[in-house]
Specification:
- The protein is α/β, with parallel strands linked by helices and about 260 residues long.
- The N and C termini lie close together (about 5 Å).
- The protein has helices at about 25-30, 60-65, 80-85, 85-95, 105-115, 175-180, 210-220, and strands at about 5-10, 40-45, 50, 70-75, 100-105, 125, 130-135, 135-145, 150-160, 160-165, 185-190, 225, 245, 250-255.
- About 20% of the residues lie in helices and about 25% in strands.
- Strands 6-5-4-3-2-1-14 form a 7-stranded mixed sheet.
Length: about 260
């Protein structure tokens, strides 16, 4: 049985935010219930495993699992909180004399290599625009609206009749973008705030109120929220739709 492991559930800034002394950030500095590294998940299984994204907390996330090498990483988009760890990964490949395998849509690969052109010496890049198989999972990606921040990609993964989607950075999806979210056993969805009050045109990720409306439409059997900011206090009872939970660091989910 394959397993999904949450190694990071935070938004672009992580929790605590270095400049902030709100109750959630202060709690994250002490007991740490709300301490959140940047969003990253790992899929483990008998047919092999892989990571989704490689943010700036990547090294600490690998250390927390006792992992000394990551062979395959699938990237959603080229924002720093999702690719900031790539130089460290490539450096590990250099020291070990092994080539990592980076998977992403071609336009994401092109952007990454413009920012870090030397990565190509240590990483093998593979475009996934026509789909890819990793660890026995058939994976299809598609572009989704990331609001003010442009675009990201979501991924739909299928294996042995189990269907799930990883969609960490999106907002205001249109009908075409929502279509792959139907008929799912699990939806992992980014929700940065419980209720975000910033002007809509400046925003980039669903809040939990909007996510509930989306879930009511696409009706996954189960949903987990990730990519959460310091607005989300895990010590409080946050109203959620049925069969919805907040992801926590270290959480393991059976993909079957």
């Amino acid at each position: 049985m394959d397993t999904l492991v949450f190694l990071g559930t935070g938004d672009a800034m992580g929790v605590p935010r270095v400049y902030c002394e709100c109750d959630v950030c202060m709690e994250a500095r002490t007991t740490g219930i709300n301490r959140r590294l940047r969003s990253l998940v790992m899929v483990e299984g008998a047919e092999g495993g892989f990571l989704i994204d490689c943010g700036p907390d990547w090294r600490g996330q690998m250390e927390s699992q006792g992992i000394r090498f990551a062979e395959k990483i699938l990237v959603t988009h080229a924002h720093f909180d999702h690719i900031g760890g790539l130089p460290e990964w490539a450096d590990a490949c250099r020291w070990l004399g092994r080539k990592g395998e980076l998977y992403a849509p071609q336009e994401v690969i092109d952007t990454i290599l413009k920012q870090f052109p030397w990565l190509a010496r240590h990483l093998m890049t593979t475009a996934v625009d026509k789909g890819i198989e990793l660890g026995g999972w058939m994976i299809q990606g598609w572009k989704v609206c990331h609001g003010y921040n442009g675009f990201s990609y979501a991924y739909r993964l299928e294996k042995n009749g189990f269907r799930w989607v990883y969609c960490s950075d999106s907002i205001g999806l249109n009908e075409k973008e929502k279509q792959p979210l139907h008929d799912l056993d699990l939806l992992v969805l980014g929700t940065s705030f419980v209720h975000e009050t910033a002007p809509y045109e400046t925003r980039s990720v669903y809040d939990m109120r909007e996510a509930a409306e989306l879930l009511a439409e696409v009706r996954p059997k189960r949903a987990l929220y990730t990519h959460m900011s310091h607005d989300v206090d895990l010590s409080r009872d946050i109203p959620l739709p049925p069969n919805v939970a907040l992801a926590r660091t270290g959480m393991k989910v059976d993909l079957a």
